[in-house]
Amino acid sequence: MMFNLFKKKKKESSRLVGLDIALKVSGFVTGKEHLHYGLWDKLDVNLDNLGKAQEAYTDLLFKYLPKKKKNSKLEILDIGGGAGENAKKLIALGHKVTIIVPSKILAEHAKKNTNNKAKILITTFEDYLPKNNLFDLCLFAESFQYIPIKIALQKASSILNNDGEILIADCFRSEKKQEGIFRQPGGGASLISMEKELRIQKINVILKKEITKLVAPSIQLEQKFYNTLGFSINRIIASLKVNRPFALKFLNIFYKILISKRKRLRLENRLFKNKRTIKSFLEYNNYMIYKLKPQKKINS
């Protein structure tokens, strides 16, 4: 028992922590557990409309599902499927869904949201070990940016049937170079590297659609949320300066010990500044929808 207490635990990535927190916030604000951008078409940018914008995003994405014969079901692999909100809708449309998520918490929510009707695997796509079943669709809804492009495309292509497709909706970096220590909003690999890898792997592009301007307002809303947290923190600090000055000094010491200077600067920039703007998102990102069809396999 004592050995277990001191046994070294595997470190959690900041990405997993962020996903679990985002899940809780999303559920509180919208009543649903979407973990993706919203599509802000003719919607005012505020929290009241966040759920509507996220639903509009999903509706657009589902327009590009593969066309099957009448009454036939798609076998879909939802890669990085979050809390299962997309899978829930896909199942309601009659499709069979397997979800890959890296977090046990996400998996539990996905199980609940899909009413146990989806197969859920707790792993990363890189570590996913496919069995004999092949899929009609590999879906990457804002999960593609976390996987090396070459691996993502090769592995997805290898687990599709001959008529299978890949559907990607995600950020890709533009040609504008990052400057300074502060990370610009958005993410992913460059759009140039994506286009290059598609040519190398000889994957057919059925659809290529840019929706950067429609999703960019999500960044504005996110920044307002962080600034609200920043205001709350500053208000607490102001109170502690008056009522508990020594406690504040100790908190400040621990803060500097536990968090590196570089991370502190990034955190404070996000909480107290207003640099994550629509303009900066548009400059540094191309938010793309790709519908891809790998070449048919040759039976040996």
According to CATH, the homologous superfamily is Vaccinia Virus protein VP39
Largest sheet: 7 strands, mixed
State the order of secondary-structure elements, H for helix, E for strand. Answer: HHHEHEHEEHEHEHHHHHE
Helix percentage: 40-55%
User: What's the β-strand tally?
Assistant: 7
The side-by-side strand order for the widest beta sheet comes to: 3-2-1-4-5-7-6
> Mind telling me the CATH class?
Alpha Beta
Count of all domains: 1
What is the average of the pLDDT values?
Answer: 85
- DSSP strand (E) fraction? 15-25%
Would you kindly provide a written description of the structure presented here, covering whatever features stand out?
- By secondary structure, the chain is of the alpha/beta class.
- It has one domain (17-215, 283-293): Vaccinia Virus protein VP39 (Rossmann fold, 3-Layer(aba) Sandwich).
- It has 12 helices and 7 strands.
- A 7-stranded mixed beta sheet has the order 3-2-1-4-5-7-6, sandwiched between helices.
- Helix 9 (217-243) packs across helix 10 and helix 9 packs across helix 11 (261-272).
- It is globular.
- The termini are far apart.
- The model is unreliable at 1-9 and 28-33 (pLDDT under 50).
Write the layout of secondary structure elements.
Blueprint: H1 2-6, H2 14-30, H3 50-62, E1 75-79, H4 85-92, E2 96-101, H5 104-113, E3 119-122, E4 135-141, H6 149-158, E5 160-173, H7 191-200, E6 204-210, H8 212-215, H9 217-243, H10 245-258, H11 261-272, H12 278-284, E7 285-293
Parallel strand pairs: 1-2, 1-4, 2-3, 4-5
Antiparallel strand pairs: 5-7, 6-7
Helix pairs in contact: 9-10, 9-11
